[in-house]
Structure formats: structure tokens, C-alpha cells
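Key result, reporting period 2: structure in, sequence out.
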């Protein structure tokens, strides 16, 4: 099948499929769910055309292999004051490059309900257009409203979101039960299929996990100061644990600025003792960091899926996450595959850390159950098969 994918992605993730491997940049490092589905499609013998963009390049790029072609459009903003205008100009440019390649596609699949989906919607009468909902804009609109810039960005995003989700020509996919329920309530009971995020089979840890001799914890977020990711509460919980176990360490992975309010608050409250700020790291290094830890702690207040949970499950690391954090309890099956707690309360995170560190039987049970469930439900080939089945069913309906 010939499949178009419109989404943020890192072109270097597919470098082994290109004719030439020279000068392939690396950006959009956090789109692991997209990378997994594209590589899964390629592994299963399908042809993929990717439409993506980046603020990190000055001119458009194209990468090509026997079964893949990746178009990368520059979205570098010269003047921030025209950022909103530039955003809609970006949509028109996406439409143009999609139109030039539409003849070679059987289906077109956008990810997230924003610019990429808006561009793809233009062609929903020419071929089946799909859109996987990967966050929930009405929730984010309430969270990110502290600055004028945030308010403008998310109000524009909400307009785009509404335009997309009310388009009856788009075939929507929810990436979790939580996302499904949000969509069901928002669009008056319209039912849509659920297809989970996937993880590449090669990321599964084959051998038994060796835990570090001293406790090492890890937490991961694209931006450490993101209020939705709730890192301050985790740091307070770790401070309490570290006072009792001074040799323990916490690794924080994600972007941050030294002069940010988040770092300033951490210093005021003395929350960075035995905490290592790793910054944003390539996926290969991230896997190595996860392997070096005792527990993966995900204190996020809301997730429509939470791909990092799959990373922990795949590497046989026990997980602590939020019992009310959107899709998280669905992914961890209400605590069967990870320790759930009220992550708004530092004492509950602390108690969960102690429970896993002090009970080897409980830890091993979580890890074994999670790993086996992951193998049977989240591997790339399984998720690709579900996508292909859906594509074919819609294609057959249109014939």
C-alpha cells in the first residue's frame, strides 16, 4: 500500500532506508510514536511518503529510498510577530507539496489535530484521509494560558482543532480509551476506532534487567518546566527520599533554561541535590539512560497516551505514574503494569518509590506483567496491521 504520513518527525530515524546517508539532520526528537509507525510500515513492505517540517532548517529538504520519500519544509520564523500568519502560510505550503504527490498515494494519514490535519483535509474527497488524535486541545487550552504568547498560540490551535474535528470527511483514530472518551463527548457521541501507539520490536530488552546497586530514578519530559508534566512535585518527593537514602539519584531528561522560573524555584527550594539535568537527548541515549535506572517515574497530570510508558515497559523498568492522568491508568491497566498513585501529592510519589524499592517481588511482578503485555499489544507490526486493516476497510467502502 502507498501511504502518506503528515506529521512532525525526524528524518534521520529512517536513514537506513535512504539511497544516500549523507548530511541527514536530526530534529523533532520527541516524535517517537510517529517514527515507530513509519518504520513499522516500511518493515511490513509498504511505501511511505512523509510530509513534515522543521524550524531548525533554512531550506526545504528531500530524502528518498526505494520505499520511502521524506519532504521536510522549513518553518523558520523570521519575525515572531508574524508567527500566526506564518503558521497558516505553512499549512498552504503543506497543501501544495501534498497535492504534488497525491496521485501516488492510496491513503493520507495526519497525526495530531492541528496544521498537518488541516492541510490533509483539503484532499479528503480525493482519497481517504485519516487523523490520529494525539493530544486533547480543550484541556491544553486551559493549562497553557499564563502568557500572551501561550494564549494566542493555543486559541489559534483551538480554532484549528475545531475546524479539523468537525470535518466529517476525515476518518479519526483515537490513540487511547481516554482520547476516545474525550472525542465522544466533544463530537456528540461519534464513535471512532482506537489504535494504540507502538514501539519498535528491536527496543525490547532481551536479557534480564540488572538494577543499579544504588537507587537511580528517571523522569522524562520534552520541557521540564511544562506544568502538565508536574516535575516540581516529583522533585519534592525525591528530596524526601534522598534525605533517607543519600546515595540515590534522579535523572531529569528534557529541555530547560538555566534562567527559567522552574530552575529558579528548584534552587530556592533546594530540589536539585543529587539531581542530574540531562537535557534533551537522542533516542538511543535515552534507552541507555532508562537501562541504568531503578524506576521510571512519570508524574504527568494528563496524557492522551504517554509513549514513555512503553519505553519503560520495553526496557523492564518498573513505572510510577498518575492514577488520574488521562490515558495512563488505561495503558498500565489500573496498576497491573505499573504503580499508580495521586501524582499531585509528593507523599504518594514518595510512598510509591519506597514500595517498589523495598519489595522485590512486587517490582518483578510489575515488570514481568508489563513486558509480556507490551509484546502482545504494542509492537510496531501489531499496530501497523491494525492501521492497514482500517485503511483497507475505508478504501473498500469508497469503491
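The corresponding designed sequence is given below.
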Amino acid at each position: 500500500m502507498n501511504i502518506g504520513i503528515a506529521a512532525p518527525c525526524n528524518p534521520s530515524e529512517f536513514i537506513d532506508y535512504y539511497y544516500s546517508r549523507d548530511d541527514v539532520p536530526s530534529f523533532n526528537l520527541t516524535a517517537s510514536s510517529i517514527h515507530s509507525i513509519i518504520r513499522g510500515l516500511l518493515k511490513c513492505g509498504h511505501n511511505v511518503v512523509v510530509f513534515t517540517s522543521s524550524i531548525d532548517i533554512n531550506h526545504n529538504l528531500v530524502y528518498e529510498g526505494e520505499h520511502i520519500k521524506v519532504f521536510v519544509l522549513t518553518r523558520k520564523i523570521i519575525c515572531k510577530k508574524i508567527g500566526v500568519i506564518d503558521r497558516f502560510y505553512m499549512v498552504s505550503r503543506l497543501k501544495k507539496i501534498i497535492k504534488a504527490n497525491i496521485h501516488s498515494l492510496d491513503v493520507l494519514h495526519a497525526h495530531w489535530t492541528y496544521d498537518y490535519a488541516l492541510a490533509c483535509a483539503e484532499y479528503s474527497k480525493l482519497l481517504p484521509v485519516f487523523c490520529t488524535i494525539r493530544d486533547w486541545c480543550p484541556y491544553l487550552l486551559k493549562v497553557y494560558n499564563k502568557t500572551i504568547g501561550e494564549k494566542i498560540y493555543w486559541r489559534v490551535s483551538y480554532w484549528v482543532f475545531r475546524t479539523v474535528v468537525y470535518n466529517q470527511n476525515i476518518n479519526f483514530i483515537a490513540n487511547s480509551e481516554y482520547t476516545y472518551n474525550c472525542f465522544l463527548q466533544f463530537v456528540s457521541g461519534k464513535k471512532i476506532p482506537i489504535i494504540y501507539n507502538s514501539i519498535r520490536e528491536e527496543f525490547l530488552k532481551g536479557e534480564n534487567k540488572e538494577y543499579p546497586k544504588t537507587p537511580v530514578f528517571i523522569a522524562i519530559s520534552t520541557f521540564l518546566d511544562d506544568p502538565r508534566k508536574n516535575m516540581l512535585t516529583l522533585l519534592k518527593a525525591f528530596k524526601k527520599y534522598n534525605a533517607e537514602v543519600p546515595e540515590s539519584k534522579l535523572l531529569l531528561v528534557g529541555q530547560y533554561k538555566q534562567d527559567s522560573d522552574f530552575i529558579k524555584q528548584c534552587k530556592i527550594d533546594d530540589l536539585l541535590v543529587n539531581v542530574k539535568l540531562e537535557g534533551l537527548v537522542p533516542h538511543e541515549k535515552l534507552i541507555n539512560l532508562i537501562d541504568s535506572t531503578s524506576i521510571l517515574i512519570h508524574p504527568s497530570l494528563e496524557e492522551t497516551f504517554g509513549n514513555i510508558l512503553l519505553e519503560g515497559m520495553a526496557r523492564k523498568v518498573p513505572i510510577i505514574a498518575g492514577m488520574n492522568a488521562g490515558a495512563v491508568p488505561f495503558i498500565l491497566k489500573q496498576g497491573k503494569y505499573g504503580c499508580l498513585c495521586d501524582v499531585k501529592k509528593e507523599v504518594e510519589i514518595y510512598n510509591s518509590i519506597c514500595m517498589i524499592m523495598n519489595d522485590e517481588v512486587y517490582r518483578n511482578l510489575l515488570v514481568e506483567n508489563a513486558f509480556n503485555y507490551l509484546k502482545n499489544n504494542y509492537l510496531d507490526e501489531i499496530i501497523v496491521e491494525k492501521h492497514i486493516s482500517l485503511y483497507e476497510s475505508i478504501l473498500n467502502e469508497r469503491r
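The radius of gyration is 21 Å. The domain at 201-377 is CATH 3.40.50.2000 (Rossmann fold). This case is discussed further under Risks and Mitigation.
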